[in-house]
Amino acid sequence: MISASPTPDVFNRWAAVYNDASNPFCTLEARLLDALLPSLDGKTILDAGCGTGRHFDLFMRKGASSLHGVDYSEQMLELARLRLPQHSKLHRSDCTTVPLADRSVDVIVCSFVLSYVQDLHAFCCEMKRLLRPEGQMFLVDMHPGTADKFAWKRSFHTEGEEVSIQWNHRCLSNIRTLLQQQALHLRTDLEVPFSEAERFLFNDAGRIDAFEKIKNDPALYLLQLTHDPLAAEYSISGARCAITSDLGLQATLGINGEKISFLQQDNKAEARELSLDGYMLLPGLINAHDHLDFSLFRQLGEGPYQDTREWANDIHSRYADEIALHRMVPHDVRVRWGAVRNLLCGVTTVCHHNPISPGMLDPSFPVRVVDRMRWIHSPAFDPEGLRAQESVQSDIPFILHACEGLSASAAAELRDLHHLGLMRSGTILVHGLAVGHDDIATLQSSGVALVFCPSSNQFLFGAIPLPQLVNGFELAAIGSDSPLTACGDLLDEAAYATSRYDLPAGKLYSMLTTSPAAMLRLSQEYAQIHAGGIADLIVVRDYGQSPAQTLQALTWKDVHLVIRAGVIRMASEELLHLIPQERRTQFTRLAIDDEFRWVRGSFHDDFEATTTIQESGKLRLGGRTISLA
What we know:
Elements: E1 2-4, H1 8-18, H2 24-36, E2 44-48, H3 56-61, E3 66-71, H4 74-81, E4 88-92, E5 105-111, H5 120-130, E6 131-142, H6 144-150, E7 154-158, E8 161-165, H7 172-181, E9 185-193, H8 196-204, H9 208-214, E10 218-226, E11 234-237, E12 240-242, E13 248-250, E14 252-256, E15 259-264, E16 272-275, E17 279-283, E18 285-290, H10 308-318, H11 320-327, H12 331-344, E19 347-352, E20 368-369, E21 374-375, H13 383-388, E22 398-402, H14 408-411, H15 413-419, E23 427-431, H16 440-446, E24 449-452, H17 454-461, H18 467-472, E25 476-478, H19 490-501, H20 505-512, H21 514-519, E26 537-541, H22 547-552, E27 561-564, E28 567-572, E29 587-592, E30 595-600, H23 604-608, E31 619-621, E32 624-628
Parallel strand pairs: 1-8, 2-3, 2-5, 3-4, 5-6, 9-15, 11-16, 12-17, 18-19, 19-20, 21-22, 22-23, 23-24, 24-25
Antiparallel strand pairs: 6-10, 7-8, 9-10, 11-14, 12-13, 14-15, 17-26, 26-27, 27-28, 28-30, 29-30, 29-32, 31-32
Helix pairs in contact: 1-4, 8-9
């Protein structure tokens, strides 16, 4: 083995094999940056020490408008040029003399570089010079304490020999101190171990014993810094936070307004503290398909049917009186109960597939309702509305029920969409029951997104979408549909989908968070927990499992607290003490089956307005009994 200083010549040698290695450090680091980087829409990015440009795709996917890559290895830059997006430039330089103007960069990412920098003070000064007043810097590197404990080295193999690169084992506390001396404030401060997501890399390399030995020690540190000092109206401490679907870390969150202002381990904030020892924080769930105004119905129908037109005709004949009674309840009351149905199971954002009334966009409404969307009911019920979409060019998502049934006309809807040029990115198809094996490749290549509600399909048609479609489709989400046809709330639907499709926990996690955010073109700030993101959070008991495994096992009874946009919207009796006594008058205590929940807002008038459909002073909400307590 050769020991070498971190010179350009050494990194030139490394460049030839850099992209070939299966490196668990890089795998973990890439997942962290994907989860913790904010939206980069319209921003200028500096990748300081960019190497072969392995993060360029991530920056572009998050919306960066321009990119600068800096590295002092010419061979690394040659490979980076192969990945270089438009409106981007590469610069051959070290990270202490970057050829860019003062305050010209919005976000700096410096990954696995800091430990090679000789003059840390010069580096900090240079990064501070480049960063705009509201800019952010992310530093990621191997954890020096764990590296010393296990005598880690940084090396690569080339031309039959191993080259070990010398690096600086700086104490992490010293790094923090120097950064803070430059008036750079820590927004995120995490020391992160490997998780089960990296286990397979160790296993493939025949080093599973090494994984078991080090899995409880931090492998990397990640620091996010800004010019602005910390501010928080209150903090949440003691809970394990879902950083990714596989990784939960105990940390303190600062909440300022509707945003998460910081995410740090061992932070003692001066703000009012909510102590949540023994709990886990998950991101608020996103319900990709619901009809809020139908939530007080029970399941109606005597299927199986061939398509939704047959079902609709049947229930309007068979259950006309019951439907008329429900319609006597004012629309604004019905949608509020629909919002409560979602809130109780941890949903903070809903895509409502019906007209949106002004009250649904009021900040006091229990859940956030997606309003930046175009929609029709379906080709079967609104063929003219479908044809009108042919000429619309917009980045706003277009949503419709499609292929909902087993009839020939349901199956033909994909052909009609293709003929109209609507099989494209931004189109969201709900259900997809009639999609056949031969259609899957076309759907995958078209850029459309799919929302599945399998319990609704089973109730109406006695069938569910193809497993290959649900498990294999990347941009896929789960919706709860309405109690008219579905089995319950969003968590009930998720459990049903898991049982019928054997969904992996990670897949289900994405179908309730990041995937619906992407297809609805919401910022990922609504789907992930990170500093600068929207404070949409749900609190559940922590049983030591990964966030994805925890979510997969949840029912509404496990959701003890819901925070939307920084405000507590629902609390169980168990966590009621987190709401000051003087503020509890802002909440209504509801009895749901054998549980009690405190929901923000007054629902006494809404309950009174539902007398036509009450039984013994109780309502049915998504299959559950609800009353004022």
